[in-house]
Amino acid sequence: MTDAAISLRDLSKTYAGGKQALRGISLDVPRGQIFGLLGPNGAGKSTTINILAGMVNKTGGTAEIWGFDLDRDPRNAKASIGIVPQEILFDPFFTPFETLENQAGLYGVPKAKRRSDALLAAVHLTDKRDAYARSLSGGMKRRLLVAKAMVHSPPVLVLDEPTAGVDVELRQQLWAYVRELNQRGVTVVLTTHYLEEAEELCDRIAIINHGQVIANEPTRALVGMASEKVVEVTVDRDLTVPPAAPCFEKIELKGERTIVITYDKRRVNAGEVLAAVTEAGLGIVDVSTREADLEDVFLNLTRAAA
Fold first, then answer.
1. Where would I find the ABC transporter domain in this sequence (predicted)?
2. Cβ-contact 229, 290 below 8 angstroms
3. Could you tell me which residues are beta bridge partners of residue 64?
4. Above 70 in pLDDT, residue 270?
5. Residue with more model confidence, 298 or 210
6. Residues of the chain above pLDDT 70, percent
7. Is 4-223 a CATH 3.40.50.300 domain?
8. Which of 79, 198, 264, 289 is 20 to 30 A away from residue 153, measured at CA?
9. Would you tell me how many other CB atoms lie within 10 Å of the CB of residue 281?
10. Where are the domains of the chain?
């Protein structure tokens, strides 16, 4: 049995008409982690997820879910994964309870072992148990999709843009539930456009672009790849033109007395940057710095791979 919850080797997909969506993706999702799969629109994230869900046939390579090969043992592979899709799709005439009961039946879960009410409670939908699904708000439908993906208690849960269109409070509730699932041993794979969410939630992140993996690192290591750092300096007099120095990568005015300096932390440190400001004849009144974050790394990597 492999230690990976999901293992992809040379996964490729070429659609009819010649569009190559995946170009030999290889990666492992470690068991028990929250794993981020990030990339720009059209990078291949949804194609990868749809292959795992059995909705798209791969062109080449192999995919294993919880040690089960998607080709040789599709029944066990698909029973090991729950997918929360990007699109909100429900039969509008079923209630949330009936939706979960029907889904459990499709997976062959015996009635005595179904957890529909417990799942509704977990996603804060108990009070909507017997309402028609069409009457639910967008955020409620998102949470119902998560419950629907968990009816057969899969060890792997994939969330494809789960917080799109969800307000801040509901997003926090959703992530609290996802963390709780993860603490219980569920491996979570997440795609999101909210990079601050990925940075906060994910243990490890892979970035794909143009159907290829361009990074696959623990989150802290990935953020550490950013070489640029920003320092914001308030000076003692009005400026019309910002000062120049060789150690500045970029400098801009923010108001009459504040300059924003970007520098490469591999070449210089903050002390040298501030010294260059004073050498330009300016007195320093206040200083604040901003560390690089996942967004900086993401933009740098995807630009380089473009």
1. 6-235
2. yes
3. 7, 69
4. yes
5. 210
6. 97
7. yes
8. 198
9. 9
10. 4-223, 228-305
